[in-house]
C-alpha cells in the first residue's frame, strides 16, 4: 500500500508516475545504483563506488548484528546477519556488470582458448569516441590539445576517428609508436587469441609485413576488410623512411627485412602516412573493437541503452 501511494502520489491516474518516469530509474535510486554519465566510459570507477558502498553496508550490518546479539535479540540478529548474504550477492552482480563492460567478449568470439598476452581487451563499439557528448559532464571527449595520454583505451574512447595520437614518426623518432589497423571480425578474434600474421600476398606496396596507419580514419582507404578496429603499440626498431619514388625498392618483397625493422612511408599528404613492420614481435599490445554490424552482444545485452532512460543525469 505504501509503495502504491508513493508511486501514485501527485498523479490523478494510478501508476501514472511509473509510466512517466519508468521502473528502471526508481530501482536505481532505491538500490543506490547510480547511472551518472561519468560511469558510461568508466566501469571500473562504478565498480569501486559500489564496492565501497556495499562494504560499508556490510560492516554496519556486522556491527548491528553484534549489538543485537549482545542485547539478546536473536530474531533481529538472524535477520540482520542474514541480510549480509544479499549484499554479497549484489556485490557479485556488480562485479559481473563490470566484467561485461571492461572484459568484453564479442558475440562471435567462440574460440575457447586464452587470449594472447598482448591482448589488453575488446571494447564494445558504443564506447568509441564518436559516441562522446561534449555537452554532457563526465561523458565528454578529451579536450587536451595536444593530448599526451598514450593509453590505448583512452585513445579509442575519448578521441574521434581522425585523432592521431602522435606526430609523424620521423618528427619524433619514438621507439614505441601508436598504430591503427583494420581487419575482418573473425580474423581479428583469431588474432586476439594468437597473434598477427604477415601480409605476403602481392600487391604489397611497402613489402611483406604488417601494415598500420596513424588514425582510424587513415585506415579506411588502406584496409581490405573493415569489420574490426585494432589500436596497437608498435616497437619501431630500425626504420627506413621512404617517399613515393622509393616504393619500387620495397614493393612486394621482404628484402628490406635484412637491414630494417620498419618501413615508414612519408606521404605528400600527412594523413596518408603508413608503415609496415617485419615481425609480430614488434607489436607490444593492442585493444580491439568489433564494429556494430558484426557484434550483436551490445544489443543483446542492451548495454548501449543502459543510460538512455537516465533521469536527472544520474538515476
Automatic annotation (TrEMBL):
Keywords: Membrane, Transmembrane, Transmembrane helix. The chain crosses the membrane at residues 47-69, 75-96. This is PARP catalytic domain-containing protein. SUPFAM superfamilies: ADP-ribosylation. The keyword Transmembrane helix applies.
Amino acid at each position: 500500500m505504501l509503495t502504491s501511494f508513493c508511486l501514485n502520489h501527485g498523479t490523478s491516474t494510478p501508476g501514472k508516475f511509473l509510466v512517466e518516469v519508468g521502473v528502471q530509474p526508481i530501482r536505481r535510486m532505491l538500490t543506490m545504483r547510480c547511472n551518472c554519465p561519468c560511469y558510461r566510459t568508466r566501469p571500473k570507477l562504478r565498480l569501486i563506488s559500489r564496492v565501497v558502498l556495499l562494504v560499508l553496508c556490510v560492516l554496519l550490518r556486522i556491527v548491528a548484528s553484534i549489538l543485537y546479539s549482545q542485547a539478546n535479540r536473536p530474531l533481529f540478529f538472524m535477520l540482520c546477519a542474514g541480510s549480509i548474504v544479499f549484499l554479497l550477492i549484489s556485490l557479485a552482480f556488480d562485479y559481473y556488470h563490470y566484467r561485461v563492460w571492461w572484459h568484453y567478449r564479442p558475440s562471435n568470439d567462440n574460440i575457447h582458448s586464452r587470449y594472447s598476452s598482448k591482448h589488453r581487451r575488446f571494447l564494445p563499439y558504443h564506447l568509441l569516441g564518436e559516441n562522446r557528448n561534449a555537452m554532457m559532464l563526465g561523458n565528454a571527449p578529451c579536450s587536451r590539445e595536444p593530448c599526451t595520454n598514450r593509453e590505448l583505451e583512452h585513445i579509442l574512447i575519448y578521441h574521434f576517428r581522425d585523432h592521431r595520437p602522435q606526430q609523424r614518426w620521423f618528427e619524433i623518432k619514438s621507439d614505441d609508436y601508436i598504430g591503427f589497423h583494420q581487419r575482418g571480425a573473425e580474423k581479428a578474434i583469431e588474432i586476439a587469441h594468437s597473434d598477427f600474421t604477415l601480409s605476403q600476398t602481392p600487391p604489397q606496396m611497402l613489402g611483406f609485413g604488417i601494415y598500420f596507419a596513424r588514425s582510424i580514419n587513415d585506415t579506411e582507404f588502406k584496409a581490405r576488410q573493415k569489420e574490426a578496429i585494432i589500436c596497437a603499440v608498435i616497437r619501431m626498431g630500425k626504420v627506413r623512411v621512404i617517399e613515393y619514388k622509393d616504393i619500387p625498392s620495397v614493393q612486394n618483397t621482404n628484402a628490406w627485412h635484412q637491414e630494417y625493422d620498419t618501413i615508414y612511408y612519408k606521404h605528400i599528404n600527412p594523413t596518408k602516412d603508413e608503415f609496415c613492420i617485419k615481425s609480430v614481435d614488434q607489436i607490444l599490445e593492442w585493444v580491439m573493437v568489433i564494429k556494430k554490424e558484426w557484434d550483436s552482444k551490445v544489443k543483446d545485452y542492451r548495454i548501449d541503452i543502459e543510460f538512455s532512460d537516465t533521469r536527472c543525469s544520474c538515476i
